[in-house]
Amino acid sequence: MKKFHEDMMIYILLRFPVKSLLRFKCISKVYYTLILSNTFVKLHLNRIRTTKDEFVLFIRTFREEPDQLKSIASFFSCDDNNDLNTLSPDLDVSDLTSTCDTIFNQLIGPSHGLIALTDSFIIIVLNPATRKYIVLPPSPFGCPKGYHRSVEGIGFGFDSIVNDYKVVRLSDVYWDPPTDYPGPREPKVDIYDLGIDSWRELDVEFPPIYYLPCSEMYYKEAVHWFIVTETVVIFCFDISTETFRTMKMPGSCTFFDGPRYGLAILNGHLTLICYPDPMSSIDPTEDLIEIWMMKEYGASESWIKIYTIKPVPIPIESPLAIWKDHLLLLQTKRGFLISYDLNSNDVKEFNLNCNFESLRVVVYTESLTAISRISEHGTKVQQF
């Protein structure tokens, strides 16, 4: 390799997966310095990719005892038969679960290969390829005695202006009287900057978040949720400008008391999944799933319906993600994972189950992105 020009050596190394590159660091100081350099990391991040480079991270929770939960993170690739292949042993992330309720556990991202895992109170940022992670310090912003703070949404992403990663936490603070009426709502926004290892408050208000399991989507340096105005709309927070905005949904997918909604990425576009309310008593033969794609991001008039899926034979709780641009991953009412092939209409059930409504999925591609530690006294980066 010493006979090759450095540019040629970089070109060759860019074709290797992260696992191999991490091993190549041990060859020499030259390789070590090159592979960990910001230039190489960015080149590797922006190299040409295909859906074969996509992997999935699952988080699922089991109730071992009435008051004891166990959460597991699982990493998979997919073969040509659309079967799951284990990338690495399951990771016990039980410390992530700080409450007895797992419905609000979320996976957010990826952002340059980094993913945030959260149960709203404990937040972990990890790189599944390098197996590095950091547990964020708790937000110092609580609420006065006699009040209750309810975390309504979490976001994570990259700020290209300051070249930094951020976590945003949306909360509502209520007066907590000994009655059923919680009192007036006061919205709060907290921002955590990974580059300076610090929380700060943002002086901005937001409407109540309409929680749905397949939301909190990161796309185009913005985090997306749902809110209800006169209809259901997509609510966005731009990581760089730290401002909120809204986007309209397709006209037939705006009803609060009708179908449920989820967000995904398909062929590089923001995608809306309209699916039947799992609590509805509608005849299963009418339970269609519609998939809409926003051809031009931010232009509500560019929504087009690309799929209408006939009822699948297994009752569905919620969609989870779209993988490899043709596999719609869904969670069944029994807590199992199934896939629906958008090309062949084949349905496959996997032996991957969990506690009711606790299955979460994020699709990612591997990267060398480092989780920086700004000082020896800062939050510690750990290895799993």
UniProtKB/TrEMBL annotation:
Residues 72-310 form the F-box associated beta-propeller type domain. Coiled coil: none annotated. It comes from the Eukaryota. NCBIfam families: F_box_assoc_1 (TIGR01640). This is S3-locus F-box type-2 protein. It comes from Petunia integrifolia subsp. inflata.
